[in-house]
Amino acid sequence: MTFNLPPGLALQKVDERIMTLNVGPQHPGSGHMRIIVQIDGDYIVACDPDPGYVHRGEEKMAEYRNYITNIPHLERPVIHDSCNVLYPYVLGAEELLGIEVPERAKYVRVIASELNRCIYIMYWLAIYGIFLGHSTMFMWPAGDRELLIDLMEKMTGARVTHAHFVPGGVRNDLPPNFEDVCLRQVNYFEKRIKEYAAVFYDNPILISRTRDTGILSRQDAIRYGTTGSVLRASGVDYDLRVKEPYDVYDELDVHTNVMKEGDSYARSRIPWLDMMESCNIIRQALQKMPKSGSVRVKLKPNPKTKGLESVYKRVESGRGSLGCYIVSDAKTEPYRVKLSVPSFRNLIALPNLLKGEKLGNMPSVYWSLNYWPVEADR
Amino acid sequence: MSTETENPSADAKPEIKTPPAKPAANKPEPTPVELPAFEKSISDKIVEKFGDKVEVAFVKEDRVRINVDKENVHDVAEFIRDGLNYDHVESVSGVDYPQDNEIEVVYHIGSYTDSSLARQILVLATRAPRETNPIPGNDATRLPTLRDVFYSVEFHEREVFEMFGVFFEGHPDNRRLLLPEDWADLPPLRKDFAIKGR
Question: In CATH, what number is assigned to the domain containing residue B136?
Answer without folding.
Answer: 3.30.460.80
